[in-house]
Amino acid sequence: MRSNHGGDIYRNRVTYDFSVNVNPYGMPQSCKRAIIDSLSMASCYPDCERTELREKIAKKELGDSAAAENVILGNGASELIYAACQAILPLQAMVTAPTFKEYETAVRINGGAVLYETLEEKDAFVLTETILDHITEDVELLFLCNPNNPTGQIMSRDFLFKIAARCEETETWFMLDECFLPFMEEEGMFTMKDHLKDYPHLMILKAYTKIYGMAGIRFGYLLSANTELLTMIRGVIQPWNVSIPAQAAAMAALQEDEYVEKTKKLIKDERAYLISEMRRLGVDLIGEPAANYIFFKGEADLADRFLERGILIRSCSNYTGLTEGFYRIGVRSPEENRALIGIWEELKKEETGK
Fold it and tell me: Which CATH architecture has domain 29-253?
């Protein structure tokens, strides 16, 4: 049995979970200690303002001139996707197909229609400049994920400049999801966070869910130079949305630069290993993955066959624009990755009858 997202370890017998794209190192020890220490305040309501935490995030992400007003905190990035749709109430919003499904779900439950910019398999699901002609005044909100989930394809900053400029022309709100960029050694070459002041309609979505292994703690944030927009979004979020343990873990994570650098190297090395081994096994890789996950095609029953052996991979058949046979695996630890390849070899031998 598989859920609409990865990580369904609760209804399956799983030894290795490759269906999620969370840091294989897990949560830093400093964050775990901070959570434990914060439990002494468990009988208190969380701080609704969280000014110090927002200020620290603003300065780390945007520089010394940034302020708490440039940051909204959320119960994971997903809450902020829904909050933005609730605040903006777009009649029409645009997403790529495929991409993270919660964008379109958030639009629909707030009464909006979804327009799809379809990515083609023949182009390795890479977004092309045809989108610039499709962003019109009728598109009130645009969602893009960079690198895209689940395809792992990255958009250049020059291309994003064109998209952001077009959104200013059409007064289209532009949410750019950068949750997976911290896994890339070249993160600074792709992020748009240094250009928020140039594009008032741009907001950048980030989270500690993935890079700091906090999927079960839930912590995300939204960055923008448009404080009126952030005030509008903040107005629809419940007061105590980020728990005391989550705030404490986030505060500790801000000091974990060495952990992030170590993670980037691990992902680069292990992604290269997996790609090499998957090619050796004849796996149909799609494009060149830039993120901490790998997108590929396989047999319709591949996820079930892996699950029989205790490995959970992400079937992407429920992504708009994809069908049965598309999959995503997260880049995990060396031990896990080698176990995956070993079982994959067994599956390949079964297929050939050798």
Answer: 3-Layer(aba) Sandwich (3.40)
- Which amino acid appears at position 161 of this protein? F
Query: Residue for token digits 């090395």?
Result: 269
Strand order from edge to edge, sheet including 314-315: 284-285, 293-297, 326-330, 314-315
d(CA 273, CA 289): 13
Percentage of the chain lying above the pLDDT 90 cut: 94
Q: What is the CATH number of domain 16-26+257-352?
A: 3.90.1150.10
pTM assigned to the model: 0.95
Domain ranges of the chain: 16-26+257-352, 29-253
Closest among 158, 141, 24 to 89, alpha carbons compared: 141
**pLDDT at position 306 over 60:** yes
DSSP, res 49: S
DSSP 172-191: -EEEEE-TTGGGSTTHHHH-
Going by C-alpha positions, the residue among 275, 235, 228, 204 that lies closest to residue 58 is 204
pLDDT score for 11: 79
| CA dihedral over 226, 149, 92, 233, signed as positive or negative | negative
Express each pLDDT in 186-224 by its tens digit: 999 999 999 999 999 999 999 999 999 999 999 999 999
